[in-house]
Design a protein that fits this description.
The protein is of the alpha/beta class and about 250 residues long. It has 8 helices and 9 strands. It is globular, with a radius of gyration of 18 Å.
């Protein structure tokens, strides 16, 4: 049974905007699924529906996991950190809301900070960190309770290319370590091919899945894959699918 299944799902906002129509999508346990499409096609709306932050207006949405912070983590494009709180306290937010004491949560927080490469930055404040480091804190905060599902809404869009490449590698390593299912939103064909096991290419509004592409590439991935003929061919295939979905060919 999929973690999440949407069938003929539609979403119409109060102002009459039809964000999604006839959407069929499964999120499978353990996979890295990327939603790829143009701005306004409903990618972020799908994440919000999965997370329970919004509701569908037609069709069905079924989940095989609870709707709580311990089961579903969410990483936004903006790290949205508390500027007055240390790195430790930003990551401690989730356990604190679950009723855990600082002492009881400390091993969990320390472990996840080490996993994202910030083990020595626990006492730092967001203003003292680079953009990439702030995003690592946001990812750590989403992962500290070990959710079964991690939703990521263009988390690396505002970062420079070198930092983005590094975080792509780190994210894949984290998934291999934690076995978390990831649904990832991006506008980048190249990023989608590099990180994914499956890409759902979305058509322009109203959003729907136009095509699915399986990325059958070995793990771990790295520089050799990024410069390989197979990667270039998959990027070309995905780009063509995206152009077809948006009516550009």
């Amino acid at each position: 049974m999929p973690l999440v299944s949407l069938r003929k799902a539609g979403k119409i906002y109060g102002n009459g905007t039809v964000a999604l129509a006839g959407l069929d999508l499964d999120v499978r346990t353990g996979e890295f699924l990327t939603l790829l499409g143009p701005s306004g096609c409903g990618k972020s709306t799908i994440l919000r529906l999965i997370a329970g932050l919004d509701t569908i207006t037609s069709g069905t949405l079924a989940r095989s996991l609870p709707l709580d912070r311990a089961s579903i983590g969410f990483v936004f494009q903006d790290p949205t950190l508390m500027p007055w709180a240390s790195v430790f306290d930003n990551v401690f937010l989730g356990p604190r809301l679950q009723g855990l004491s600082r002492r009881d949560a400390a091993p969990m927080v320390d472990e996840v900070l080490a996993l994202v490469g910030l083990g020595t930055e626990a006492k730092a404040f967001p203003r003292e960190l680079s953009g990439g480091m702030r995003m690592r804190v946001s990812i750590a905060r989403a992962l500290v309770l070990r959710p079964a599902l991690l939703l990521m809404d263009e988390p690396f869009a505002a970062l420079d290319e070198i930092t983005r490449f590094r975080l792509n590698d780190d994210l894949l390593a984290l998934q291999g370590e934690l076995k978390t299912t990831i649904v990832f939103v991006t506008h980048s064909v190249y990023e989608s091919v590099y990180v994914s096991r499956r890409i759902a290419v979305m058509a322009a509004r109203p959003g729907r899945i136009a095509e699915e592409i399986a990325i059958n590439a070995p793990s771990p991935r790295g520089k050799n894959f990024r410069t390989s003929t197979a990667y270039a061919q998959l990027c070309a295939q995905t780009s063509q699918a995206l152009q077809g979905a948006t009516g550009e060919v």
